[in-house]
Amino acid sequence: MTSSEAGRHLARFQQERARLNDLVLKYAGRGIKRLYSIDAQVYEGGALPAKTKELLGLVASTVLRCGDCIKYHLINCREQGVTTQELDEALAIAMVVGGSITIPHIRRAFAAWDELSENH
Amino acid sequence: MTSSEAGRHLARFQQERARLNDLVLKYAGRGIKRLYSIDAQVYEGGALPAKTKELLGLVASTVLRCGDCIKYHLINCREQGVTTQELDEALAIAMVVGGSITIPHIRRAFAAWDELSENH
Amino acid sequence: MTSSEAGRHLARFQQERARLNDLVLKYAGRGIKRLYSIDAQVYEGGALPAKTKELLGLVASTVLRCGDCIKYHLINCREQGVTTQELDEALAIAMVVGGSITIPHIRRAFAAWDELSENH
Amino acid sequence: MTSSEAGRHLARFQQERARLNDLVLKYAGRGIKRLYSIDAQVYEGGALPAKTKELLGLVASTVLRCGDCIKYHLINCREQGVTTQELDEALAIAMVVGGSITIPHIRRAFAAWDELSENH
Amino acid sequence: MTSSEAGRHLARFQQERARLNDLVLKYAGRGIKRLYSIDAQVYEGGALPAKTKELLGLVASTVLRCGDCIKYHLINCREQGVTTQELDEALAIAMVVGGSITIPHIRRAFAAWDELSENH
Amino acid sequence: MTSSEAGRHLARFQQERARLNDLVLKYAGRGIKRLYSIDAQVYEGGALPAKTKELLGLVASTVLRCGDCIKYHLINCREQGVTTQELDEALAIAMVVGGSITIPHIRRAFAAWDELSENH
Predict the structure, then answer these.
(1) What is the ipTM of this complex?
(2) Tens of pLDDT along A72-103?
(3) Count of the separate structural domains present in chain C
(4) Taking CB atoms and an 8 Å limit, are A106 and F23 in contact across chains?
(5) Which residues of C touch D (CB under 8 A)?
(6) Is the Cβ–Cβ distance between A6 and A111 less than 8 Å?
(7) For residue E75, what are the domain limits?
């Protein structure tokens, strides 16, 4: 991947995600729609701030090794003001808990973070 | 992805799957070949109809988040006459059991279903 | 385990499950309660009959290797009139998809089924 | 389980955990010992406070469904001053990400929290 | 657990495993029986010796965190002459790949090994 | 994929892996760096030869279905002199333990092995 390709990676990810979510809405019934609604609600700030919740979502996604979920929470972490050192400490916990099998996802997480950092 | 690219997606998936299965046959010994044989047998209609068994395979593949397995069972579900509403209800169970971590696969499942529906 | 102990196993499981659900209700907020509600809804009969949905829940629980979830769906399968042959075919799919790592759970599933059968 | 049995549950868990860790130290070589050391280090307060790190460990353990790991982090969460509402919000994220398959562990997590609360 | 209880642990495990396998044979059809047959075959010595294959089964069982599977392969490892140092190196790989979430199973693996060593 | 594309697949994998590891080193703190160090150490020859350890890593990666990890260990297996028959027997164990859900990764493993074999 050249660096200009890398630079467009997260933008393409978000476009494709939006296209596919439209297809889910075209077909999905009440059960899936209610789950989508809860999935948005639980990350809203409450007793725990939204920033902490995004880190919880990021670590959960990393130990379960879901690339799309990791990218989604990384974008939100950036928006919530997570610093690089906070990100590193959260991903270190994910890597300790989840093992070396998470390394390919952690590599791509730092690459996405690098892209997000360049854009800010 | 443009819509014409999307339209060729499942056809390419099946070609690549066949190419790779030939490579497995080139190298695999008795253990793997016996497992391939059982993997075909358990989805044949019996006390449970083949259609129900494909839905079982689809939901198992979705909660275990195996993209290729999902596509394979979706194609078979279509051939067995599964309706869109039946598919939605099965995937809602998969999403409840497996959580939001299955959403990226459920998005792609509906996209594949959309492609299969256009071709029929 | 003697057979009289085995005979009381599922009854104890259901009592303990009820005791713990009371504790969840004591502490849980809106997010968890909404998920409990959806978890009940998606197994209701619709385009797919409730019996098929319980088999989907059983197979999903087996490949994800959740002992409590397997017992819960087995009890419901029995109530929905699933036959032993249908159960065997569903668990064979779970075992093919999920591998030998599911065998300890499949052993206990048949033991629970045996107990349920004696009680009927 | 009677309530007096429940009251002794976490104390027994910690005794058994200590007994088994002694056995690990009796047999384990350099690799496992280094991993034990890192496993302690990554939860120390840094850019993220220790309390947040325990919640990250708790959510990671819940979506991966490790009962012993959940109990361990719950005890640490209590020591770090996590409130019941914070716990509920963290477990709601774990349950959304990990699905209904996490419910048996979330039930036992609230039961352990109930025991910890009684002891304080 | 007292040490005399611990000393009977693996013997009880094998009795219960045999009792449950009888129940599987009582109910299971052709699919599950064929899988049981392959499950025995793949661990037979071939190009790789049986000892190496038991270590492969042990590490696979550990990263997938199946307690019964781990005990089963530990007993076979002992019979195949695996040494304590070899076991430690194999479990270190499992722990690195699978992460700290495997630690509770690795603790119990060393406890079972300790029991097996006392009996020899 | 044409055969010339396939022929360049592993080379591209290694280049991308190196590029991303540089990004990890750019951002990662002490925790992640220590884990990288242990991840290298545990595969060094000891009581078990390095070849056996690479097979352990390969089988662990296959049952956990990590494509990048599988490719990495396949390359190392080739360098350690693993034969095609040994590879087949190890992957048969992985497929029995992990189930048909591992088949897509086993297909790609044999495809990568085919490419490695052509290059030797």
Answers:
(1) 0.93
(2) 999 999 999 999 999 999 999 999 999 999 99
(3) 1
(4) no
(5) 16-17, 19-21, 23-24, 26-29, 31-32, 35-36, 39, 60-61, 64, 66-69
(6) yes
(7) 3-118
